[in-house]
Amino acid sequence: MEKMSRVTTALGGSALTGRTMHCHLDAPANAISVCRDAAQVVVAGRSIFKIYAIEEEQFVEKLNLRVGRKPSLNLSCADVVWHQMDENLLATAATNGVVVTWNLGRPSRNKQDQLFTEHKRTVNKVCFHPTEAHVLLSGSQDGFMKCFDLRRKDSVSTFSGQSESVRDVQFSIRDYFTFASTFENGNVQLWDIRRPDRCERMFTAHNGPVFCCDWHPEDRGWLATGGRDKMVKVWDMTTPRAKEMHCVQTIASVARVKWRPECRHHLATCSMMVDHNIYVWDVRRPFVPAAMFEEHRDVTTGIAWRHPHDPCFLLSGSKDSTLCQHLFRDASQPVERANPEGLCYGLFGDVAFAAKDSLVAAESGRKPYAGDRRHPIFFKRKLDPAEPFSGLASSALSVFETEPGGGSMSWFVDTAERYALAGRPLAELCDHNAKVARELGRNQVAQTWTMLRIIYCSPGLVSSASLNHSVGKGSSCGLPLINSFNLKDMTPGLGSETRLDRSKGDTRSDTVLLDSSATLITNEDNEETEGSDVPADYLLGDVEGEEDELYPLDPEHVHPEEPEYVLPQEAFPLRHEILDTPSGPEHLQDKADSPHVSGSEADAASLAPVDSFSLLSISHALYDSRLPSDFFSVLVCDMLRFYAEQGDVQMAVSVLIVLGERVRKDIDEQTQEHWYTSYIDLLQRFCLWNVSNEVVKLSTSRAVSCLNQASTTLHVNCSHCKRPMSSRGWVCDRCHRCASMCAVCHHVVKGLFVWCQGCSHGGHLQHIMKWLEGSSHCPAGCGHLCEYS
After folding, report:
1. Phi-psi category of residue 505: left, alpha or beta, with phi > 0 → left and psi -120 to 50 → alpha
2. pLDDT of res. 406
3. Residues 298-356: pLDDT tens digits?
4. For 565, which DSSP code?
5. What angle is formed at CA 632 by the lines to CA 626 and CA 637, rounded to 5 degrees?
6. If residue 77 lies in a helix (H) or strand (E), which one and from where to where?
């Protein structure tokens, strides 16, 4: 009842009545404005300039202001405003740079009153002073704002924003002399109309052009701004520095913003592209709009609340050539369709669960959430029951905490900081990363790095210390490990050439493969004799099958004092006398008779007679004992996907970077980009900025490699004329002087540039450092005491 009485008083004893309705226009509208008594609305565009009466059931055309035989560019309007003190006074901003005032009280058909032609480019915005009937303000694409006194024929003040274009100007409702202006460079400026030489305050509000602004009708210092960065921000201008109070994230660029009357935290927005709807937001709940109007089929170009004391009626014009009146109770409410349930896994291992109040209340014994035990990441606002839409999507939040230390992620941080991803040979990178993983207790990851080294590195690089194949207790043979495979799967000719008949006549068949680089001894049935001692932990893991090789990795069984015997490669014995005859055959014969020797060793030792120097006579190397690395590409890709599916994107990305083109070509670009972005997000959550930047630099994905370049913006002003520098070079467009001139050597700085924030002079880093070692005065001679730390 209190609000209704205020509305009735403001409207002169009769409340507004009406319904949701629309009418078709002759052409697309660019802007609309409502008269003081809320009974008429003016619609302006490039080809339309009409006044409509707002009746209870429909819009009725009252006046067409486009009169005359010849079309004039003065009638092509970019903006229109109706004075709130004089119901006969209108002003339009023309696309040709002319500001036109209109007097509806003139008896003639042509209502045009005055023309101001001082702007050189399109005028984007015009605004009347809220209490002065003769003061008009305009903002233009030429970067200037002009204040006109309608009793004179020219402007009384000109304000230069030192920017490319002015997108909006708005007089403050509470402060008589103050107005705000927004610019395409993202800045917002506050001016005093009595001081046109400089602005009172300037701050960067958005990352991109700021298209609109609106002063709060009740709170004196609140200013809402909207920009191309799809955000609406509310600023408190009463503090010494502009303070951001609220931020609303929309889905498209914000073209218009208007505070809702009688609702302190509500504002309406519309977009200039993509999105055709009008949204009403509660700035305290910035993620879901409180109401949404969906009547338009093209971009909405202008919105206005019908009366400054009535929150129920909203008028809008669009490029679909329609004028609409929206009744707030007919708006769709997205909060009704919002899901009140959600689940999120926290950074420290906690699980947050939100559900309806009724569901949580029905469960007995639940304690309320008292807040994060470490640092508060989010807060739950206590809802006001009197607030509109407050109870539609309310949820109760429950947080299930893990045991202290149970969800520690220290291994992730240590791994990210200690991993080596580039700058060394592949073998060293794999060894280093395997060592890091092993020290952190991640044995499976360490084993994976070791296997990658074996697959992609040449056999000569595998050290005997890291790979030792122990066979029994009494002998060790340093053999390079190749991946296990079945000889039955190979070509028939290969098996027949290398199969030797045993003199003892047993049914088992061992195969000896000889080449120039390695020796492979394979026992097909993998049986152990009674005296053998083979460790249980194998490098290749638990292998099932009868003909797979198992090479144990056990450095403790290395016996360096026993000489290693290598089978000769010559087909025939050497004809000259050999002085140092190896004792291999006798040694092997002795071991063959020992009961503590495995069957494979005994068989290998008995392959040749004792008195023969050459154990085998072959004419050429049978085959290369190493399979090509491409043979394992499918296996490696499956391994990367396994780690990614397990949530260890750190391992997937690290292997992807280390292996490079060896494996990158086998994984699609979209999957790689997903892994990179996930890992970078985790690194940034743990504040590992240097590691994150290194991963971005080493990435070959275009979408990822530009992440550390797109989020940094450096605004540079000329040190001579203070004008913002363009992105085309280091020469100022205004004074044509180079801004990056060294104050010591007086040459252009083409590399690292350092400058004093006090006097703006600077130069080469080394020159400035050397100068300040002997003097604290500025080398440019300005007298400023510069400091370098």
Report:
1. left
2. 58
3. 999 999 999 988 899 999 999 999 999 999 999 998 877 877 788 888 766 778 888 87
4. -
5. 160
6. strand 77-82
